[in-house]
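Hey Z.,

So I finally got round to the zinc ion thing we talked about over coffee. Here's the setup:
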Amino acid sequence: MKIGLDIGGSHIAIGIVDDNNKLLQKYEKDIKISESKNPERYLLDNIILLIKDIFSKIDRNEVDLIGIACPGNIQDGKLISAANLRIKNLGIAKELEKEFNIKTIVRNDGKCAALAEKYVGAMKNYKSACFLILGTGVGGAVFLDGEMILPKKDSGFEIGHMVIDINGDKCTCGRVGCFETLCSMRKFKNDIIQKLQLNSNVTGIEIRKLLEDKNTYNLVEDVINIFIYNLSVGLGNLVRIFKPEVICIGGSFTHYEDILLCKLKKELEREVSLFNSNDLPEILMATLKNDAGIIGATII
Ligand SMILES: [Zn+2]
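And the result:
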C-alpha cells in the first residue's frame, strides 16, 4: 500500500493507494500558506499531520511508499522553488523519511498526473502519448514506447515554455510568447472577462454558464477561435516532434470540453495536414480529474 499527497496552493489532498494504483480513500485539508511567516515549516507540519492521521486509520507497516506531487522545480526529493507556495529549498523527502522511516519520493505534479493517466487513465492503451495540463499555466509530459521521457538534469520538459509567438507577451519565465502565455486557461478566462467586461472575480462555473448562451457565445467567438488556433499551433509542434498516437488534455480545459474540443480537433487536423495528415493523433480528455496527482505520486 502507498500514501499519495497532492500539494496545491490552497489545499493538500492525501490518499491511500493500493498496489494496483487504485485510490482507496481520500482526504483534503485547506491550507493558508500565504499567511504563514515560515511557509516551509508550515507546509511540512501540515504534511506530517495528515500522514499521522492516515496512520491512525491503517497499519503503517503496510505502507511501503510515500509519494508527493508538488508544483515547482524539484530535484532529488527537494523542492527547490515553487513560486505560488512561496517555498524555496525544502528537503521534503529527507524530512519525511526521518519522521516516518518510509521511502519518500517527490515529483512535479504535472508529471504525476501524466503518470496516472498513462498507467490507469485515458492514455493506458497507448504507447506514445503527449499529456498536457491546461490550467493556471501549461504543463505536460511525453511518453515514447510506453516510457515517460525524463531529462538528465532538472525537472525539464517545460512544454508550457515553448515559444509559439516571438512577438507575444512576456512570460513569467523571462521569455516572450510562450505557449503558456497564450494557451493557459488563465489566459482564456482573462480574455473572456475583458471582452465581456465582467468582474475579475467571476468564477469558471459562471463563465461556463455564460458561454452556454448563444448570444454571449457569439460575442466571444473570436476570442475562442484565437485561443484554439494558438493551442493547435502548440499541439502541432508536439505532433511534428514526437508523432504521438494520442494527446491527452487535463486541467480546467476539461470543464469546457463540449465547447472547445470539437473546434480543437478541427484546427489540429488543419495544422497537421500541412505536413502529414497521417500523423493526426487522437485527442482525449483526462479521466482521473483531481485524483490524478495523488495516484501518479505513488507510481514508480
Ligand atoms: Zn515561459
